[in-house]
């Protein structure tokens, strides 16, 4: 059973003259009143009584009072805490009547419960650390957060490279009607040389035919001119004519090959190869882009698995409040970070976490509750009751939502007469 404040009695602390009250066990006790009347002084006095000298006000004596401060608090576990005298010495008496000290209180009184602003003013990471530690998954969540950040950054870099590769490929030219591989100039030149050799042989045969024709003509002339040598040359003429006939047949069958196309291809080979290389580069760029997009998809799946593991870890944890989580090292509530929560949501989150930090401490002190409207205040009170929590809070108001009104250091009665005596007797307390 968590410890609550059953009753408190405060005299001559800061602005308080004499205030004694029994707060409700579960739910919200609102100390109302105008500014400067002693509401916050009540909370400061309770924190001082239960938390020790580290919570002592810098100027605890009420101005104008010759009587030293007196604080007395009765707790639901039967322990009575008292500070009194010139040195405000502490006396703690347990249920068996034994005396104790601050160590006895520290065992079940949460520092955050006495000083909730300390938690609320912490950084987002500090709040997240507190939550993760109390539910026992802090180290594992931060390992997953670190892994998630690393994979996310790597995936982003891969995605950027893939986009660059794709853009580079899209901007590159592509040509139709060119080979898939660069053309070899030496092969074309060798073909050209073979054709030129064959054509050279053809020219030689043509020259030989021309020479034979010239010789035949000369011989025929010689025969005509030198009749007397007819016999001598007839035999030779017959041979030459036979050779000439063979030569004519050979020449008639000759066909010259054109080297124009090869010459044109040789001339255009650099341009063809440029286009071929451009097509190959474009294909390589497209393939690189596909490869990086594949890596991006794999890392996306890895990132989603890490996030799922983290979410499962948090969702299966015993969180102090539905909707609480940790995102990228920051505490969130219903998807909102601390600075985007309403004031009432911040108070609810802080109260729930502080309760979880020390379940034995069943109360919390809240200052400046005027940030809540009356409807929100009622909802907050119902939530406290459902959680079995006790909250003692201040609010600048004289409305019906206030449990008591503090005026000029006293509890204001319905007849406006200040209440200066405790609500319980010395024997009862």
Key terms:
429 residues; alpha+beta; Rossmann fold; 2 domains; six-stranded antiparallel beta sheet; six-stranded mixed beta sheet; 11 helices; 15 strands; 51% helix; rod-shaped; disordered C terminus
Can you walk through the features of this model?
The protein has 429 residues and is α+β, with helices and mostly antiparallel strands. 51% of the residues lie in helices and 16% in strands. It has 11 helices and 15 strands. Strands 2-1-4-5-6-7 form a 6-stranded antiparallel beta sheet. The chain has a 6-stranded mixed beta sheet with strand order 11-12-3-13-14-15, with helices on both faces. The protein has a 3-stranded antiparallel beta sheet with strand order 8-9-10. The protein is rod-shaped. It starts with a strand and ends in a 10-residue tail after the last strand.
Question: Could you provide a short overview of the structure?
Answer:
Keywords: Coiled coil. Helices cover about 50% and strands about 15% of the residues. With about 425 residues, it is of the alpha+beta class.
Annotated CATH architecture of the largest domain: 3-Layer(aba) Sandwich
Shape: rod-shaped
Alpha carbon gap, first and last residue: 21 Å
Query: How is the main sheet built?
Result: 6 strands, antiparallel
The tally of domains stands at 2
Which oligomeric state applies?
single chain
Can you tell me the CATH superfamily of the largest domain? Answer: P-loop containing nucleotide triphosphate hydrolases
Mean pLDDT: 85
CATH level 3 topology of the largest domain: Rossmann fold
Structural class designation: alpha+beta
Q: What is the CATH C level class of the largest domain, in words? A: Alpha Beta
Beta-strand segment tally: 15
Low-confidence stretches: 414-429
Strand content: 15-25%
Number of helices: 11
In angstroms, what is the radius of gyration? 53 Å
Biggest β-sheet: strands ordered side by side in the sheet: 2-1-4-5-6-7
What is the helix fraction of residues, given as a range? 40-55%
H/E element sequence: EEEHEEEEHHHHHHHHEEEHEHEEEE
């Amino acid at each position: 059973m968590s410890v609550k404040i059953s009753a408190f009695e405060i005299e001559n602390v800061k602005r308080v003259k004499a205030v004694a009250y029994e707060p409700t066990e579960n739910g919200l006790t609102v100390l109302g009143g105008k500014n400067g009347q002693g509401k916050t002084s009540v909370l400061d006095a309770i924190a001082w009584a239960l938390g020790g000298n580290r919570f002592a006000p810098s100027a605890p004596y009420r101005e104008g009072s010759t009587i030293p401060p007196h604080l007395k608090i009765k707790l639901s576990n039967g322990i009575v805490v008292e500070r009194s005298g010139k040195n405000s010495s502490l006396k703690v008496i347990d249920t068996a009547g034994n005396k104790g000290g601050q160590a006895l209180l520290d065992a079940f009184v949460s520092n955050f419960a006495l000083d909730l602003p300390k938690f609320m003013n912490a950084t987002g990471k500090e709040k997240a650390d507190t939550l993760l530690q109390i539910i026992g998954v802090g180290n594992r969540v931060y390992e997953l957060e670190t892994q998630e950040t690393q994979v996310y950054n790597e995936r982003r870099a891969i995605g950027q490279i893939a986009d660059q590769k794709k853009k580079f490929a899209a901007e590159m030219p592509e040509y139709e009607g060119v080979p898939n591989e660069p053309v070899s100039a030496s092969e074309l030149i060798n073909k050209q040389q073979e054709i030129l050799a064959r054509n050279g042989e053809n020219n030689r045969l043509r020259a030989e035919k021309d020479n034979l024709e010239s010789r035949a003509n000369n011989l025929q002339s010689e025969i005509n001119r030198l009749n007397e040598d007819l016999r001598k040359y007839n035999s030779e003429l017959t041979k030459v004519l036979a050779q000439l006939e063979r030569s004519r047949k050979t020449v008639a069958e000759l066909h010259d090959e054109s080297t124009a196309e090869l010459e044109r291809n040789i001339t255009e080979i650099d341009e063809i190869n440029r286009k071929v290389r451009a097509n190959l580069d474009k294909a390589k760029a497209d393939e690189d882009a596909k490869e990086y997009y594949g890596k991006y998809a794999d890392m996306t799946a890895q990132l989603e698995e890490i996030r799922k593991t983290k979410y499962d870890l948090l969702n299966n944890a015993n969180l102090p409040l539905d909707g609480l989580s940790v995102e990228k090292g920051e505490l969130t509530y219903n998807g909102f970070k601390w600075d985007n929560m309403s004031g009432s949501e911040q108070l609810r989150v802080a109260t729930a976490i502080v309760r979880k930090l020390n379940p034995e401490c069943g109360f919390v002190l809240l200052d400046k509750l005027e940030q809540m409207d009356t409807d929100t205040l009622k909802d907050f009170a119902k939530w406290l009751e459902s959680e079995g929590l006790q909250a003692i809070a201040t609010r600048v108001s004289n409305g019906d939502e206030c449990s008591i009104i503090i005026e000029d250091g006293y509890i204001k009665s319905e007849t406006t007469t200040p209440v200066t005596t405790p609500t319980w007797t010395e024997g009862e307390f």
